[in-house]
Design a protein that fits this description.
The chain is mainly α and 76 residues long. Helices cover 38% and strands 0% of the residues. The chain has three helices and no strands. The protein has helices at 23-38, 55-59, 65-72. α1 (23-38) packs across α3 (65-72). The longest helix has 16 residues, at 23-38. It is globular and about 40 Å long. The chain starts with 22 loop residues before the first helix and ends with a helix.
Length: 76
């Protein structure tokens, strides 16, 4: 069998328009929420998944949005 996987924490941002915040700001909020929910530091996060529908069209960044946003949140 494969490796055991454990999900210790989850988080997401509220759904809505946030004209005063960047995608990186929203990713930071979500990552901070995950660390708090799991009771760990951001350095202990081993995997992260980003889902978004319209950000590519808005930011003209279609391929590596998650990597860019998560790096700004302190994990990469």
């Amino acid at each position: 069998m494969g490796k055991e996987v454990v999900i210790l924490g989850v988080s997401m941002t509220k759904i809505g328009k946030f004209m005063d915040r960047t995608f990186k700001d929203l990713a930071c909020e979500a990552v901070d929420g995950v660390a708090k929910d799991a009771g760990i530091s951001k350095r202990q996060i081993q995997a992260a998944y980003v889902g978004n529908v319209q950000a590519g069209a808005i930011s003209n960044q279609f391929l590596i949005q998650g990597q860019v946003w998560l790096r700004a949140a302190g994990i990469g």
